Amino acid sequence: MSAGHTAVTTELFSDPSEDCGVRDVLDRLGDKWSVQVLVELSRGVRRFRELQRAIPGDISQRMLTLTVRRLERDGMVRRTVHATVPPQVDYELTELGRSLAGLIRTMSDWSAEHHEAIVEFRRDWDAAHPDAEIR
Amino acid sequence: MSAGHTAVTTELFSDPSEDCGVRDVLDRLGDKWSVQVLVELSRGVRRFRELQRAIPGDISQRMLTLTVRRLERDGMVRRTVHATVPPQVDYELTELGRSLAGLIRTMSDWSAEHHEAIVEFRRDWDAAHPDAEIR
DNA sequence: CCGCATCCTGGGCGATACTG
DNA sequence: CAGTATCGCCCAGGATGCGG
Prior knowledge:
2 copies of one chain form a homodimer.
Chain A: H1 22-29, H2 34-41, E1 46-47, H3 48-54, H4 61-73, E2 77-82, E3 88-93, H5 95-128
Antiparallel strand pairs in A: 1-3, 2-3
Chain A binds a DNA duplex through residues 31-33, 47-49, 58, 60-66, 81, 84-89.
């Protein structure tokens, strides 16, 4: 993010069949919990239950496990198991994960700036299309 | 909070219960076709069939309609119906849509820069976890 | 405390057929 | 051409219960 050498892609996607891997990133970021987990971990190291309690919206154990496992597989999160009783597992962002958190921050800023406009557009559209199943 | 950790993070989301509307954006960008539609429209005005043919992956009429309708509702796309026979409908990005395309560009650049690392992490993880159903 | 196994439901998505 | 209508599949994700 900080390095200033990125002049590879002139067009958005030079090859239509090649999406540079944005899909991989969006498939992760697009799911229900990954962003919240990344945001919470950007605040510091967290244990499993800490994560679960900190995340708004009542994430189930199953989904937290899946989410954090996939993030680990993608190299965004490091998982550390302490051989204690009872067991303790710490989660923290990797360098790559912090970089992704930076991207999320960028997206968050964009959203904050345009969210109101979006909501307004939606309201107008819904008013102009009384019965639509678009949701 | 953990001490000794670099405080680069300026609080991603000040209020945990407030996600600034990133969810709205990610719910759209996270679906299967929106990004590709936005990218194609960032190249210029397109008609319905043009869009369908230009997008790789064989998008169905139904999904193209749904995708483009939702983008219109969110104020990203302007839809213009010409009263001709046969009917002709043009789609183009709004100012807001172009702004979003810019964000997608940012995400695309990030992905291009880190995709290889991600793929490598996945390969290593999969190797270290021979039998896992995480995918 | 930290998970995994299992069952179940809702909605995203595709295929197909029909209309103006 | 540019949609609408219907059906059916698949899978993300919730609930629950067990195990180390």
